[in-house]
Amino acid sequence: xxxxxxxxxxxxxxxxxxxxxxxxxxxxxxxxxxxxxxxxxxxxxxxxxxxxxxxxxxxxxxxxxxxxxxxxxxxxxxxxxxxxxxxxxxxxxxxxxxxxxxxxxxxxxxxxxxxxxxxxxxxxxxxxxxxxxxxxxxxxxxxxxxxxxxxxxxxxxxxxxxxxxxxxxxxxxxxxxxxxxxxxxxxxxxxxxxxxxxxxxxxxxxxxxxxxxxxxxxxxxxxxxxxxxxxxxxxxxxxxxxxxxxxxxxxxxxxxxxxxxxxxxxx
Length: 267
Hints:
The chain has helices at residues 23-33, 52-74, 81-96, 109-113, 151-159, 166-171, 173-176, 208-212, 256-262; strands at residues 11-12, 19-20, 100-102, 117-119, 124-133, 138-146, 183-188, 199-202, 216-218, 222-227. By secondary structure, the chain is an alpha+beta fold. Strand 1 (11-12) and strand 2 form a beta hairpin. The chain is globular, with a radius of gyration of 21 Å. The protein starts with 10 loop residues before the first strand and ends in a 5-residue tail after the last helix. This is Box C/D snoRNA protein 1. One of its GO terms (biological process) is snoRNA localization. It comes from Erythrocercus mccallii. It holds the Pfam family BCD1.
């Protein structure tokens, strides 16, 4: 058993392939690794290990994608004029704030999840926001985050040792035990090739709106919270020595890289 290292393993997780000896260890490993136990249908399989079962699995997966796409195409609400006007309004208001907001086609996971709205009365966005804490394998989804709220205030309920929820604090204890000066907030730069992924470092003392200006946002912002003292594979643009810092006005508007990564998830 890879959880308790005491008993002989009886089960193997379809998702992460970890061995477990009992239901208790299965639950522990799911909690520790944020694993849902569901087999990843898009996991890489080498040619040497590819079997008829893998071929059948891929065939069924493509059939599921086709059914989902067909169902989305028939859905009357998502194609209604009101929905199209809302998306146009969001993109137009974002453009006025110097934010290049992209929306994905119907059926994509991020399109279904997105709850971002714009208040004409207050003249500000209320963003759907995702926070990812890589060192603890944890992620949280926030809804209705006002664009004038600073990133430091957004993170307080998660990494502040005093104001954070006790359960969240325990899960993110690596962050809560670290000084605030050690926390870095990164956001992936969209529309780059898969072998050249880079991140922008955001300013925690500035508002969410200020940090998003000049950026390409696909549906909603996803922020990665990392610690300087812990190793991670995220390369910040302008700090790897190979290329200059990003010019926010020169970002491409192509969606090909996002669609390629999302299309399998649309089912």
